[in-house]
User: Fold this.
Amino acid sequence: MRLKHLIMPPDKVYFDLLERQAANVAEAAHQLLDFTKNFTNIKEKRQEIEVLEHTGDEITHEIYERLNRKIRPPFDPEDVSKLASALDEVLDYIDGTIERMLYYGIQSSDISMIELAKLIYLSTVEIEAAVKSMRSMKDPQYIEERCIEVNRLENLADDELSRAMTALFSTDDPIAIIKLKDIYDYLEMATDYCEDVADVLSDIAIRYSSE
Assistant:
């Protein structure tokens, strides 16, 4: 055990909070994917995801409160703060996507929405697995592999966004273009923040394995 851990043991509640948040994000992503595949009951499904988003806000607030009170986390406080923030952003963009579909009066999803939602969900599954591995940190390489996969999925999301935009701008309905572009952008931004989460997790794993 490291000397600094003996002098001031880290608070393992951070693991509980981060694992809850990662699971919460993965559930929201799962619901988003189901929503795009089964485009029904928009208001009800949006409310379900909104509940998850509010839960995420509460978890993030608790993490920040502990950091502000100088309760020592198992890893660098800045990394914990960045991780909590990025996870919260993923939730915000998932919630924001469905919010826009509702407000814009979107009547159905399309293949690009489904594909982007799938990539978000797959990314959150990798993130949840990586976050769970942080508790023991027995295999930093496993975390690295999960992060590499998230990065790969984000690249696929970039490609899908390009295809969606190319098809969208070949149409001649300016209102539809504005609405759908906003939705595609929000979906792709969720994958960007998944990549941000992965970058923080990768930094933690590399730093830990080098100590």
In short: Confidence is low (pLDDT under 50) at residues 1-8. The radius of gyration is 18 Å. Residues 174-210 form the longest helix (37 residues).
